[in-house]
Amino acid sequence: MASVPKYDGFCTVPDHVGYKPVVGKFLNLYEPISHVPRQGYFLCIRSLVGHIFGEQYELGMDYLQLLNLCPDQKLPILLLVSEDRQTAVLRGRALFGRAQAEVHDRGSRLPSGKRPERQVQACTCH
Asked: Per residue, what are the HEC states of 46-108?
């Protein structure tokens, strides 16, 4: 039993860059993302963010960067609302949610509290 680690409790400390499974004497319940972010081309994501945020593209990219690099920072809740409720826009919002679930892996949750199903879908970039 001496080889079994002992903790004072549990914590949830999100970190996508320097994840630590143990923080102090607490077991971190936050799960790390399974991929390593890297610099490069991201045409499909850029197209999706442009579709969702439109003229506020830079604001959308800033929001996503903060969400990923500073996950413990409090940010406004992002509500995606379509004025015309067209099917294409609804698909864009749903795709955006699934894309975020893919990026955040096991750390993402739906409003119901359930984890989203893992679905990798093809992306058509414009």
From this structure: HHHHHHHHHHHHHHHHHHHHHHHHCCCCCCCCCCCCCCCCCHHHHHHHHHHHHHHHHHHHHHC
Q: What is the pTM of this model?
A: 0.67
Determine phi and psi for 45, rounding to 5 degrees. -65, -40
Find, among 22, 119, 13, the residue nearest to 72 by Cα.
13
All residues at 6 or more sequence positions from 76 whose CB lies less than 8 Å from its CB, including other chains: none
* 8-state DSSP, 45: H
Segment 17-39, tens digit of pLDDT:
889 999 999 999 988 888 777 78
Strand partners, 27: 10, 22
Looking up tokens 């499909």, which residue turns up? 44
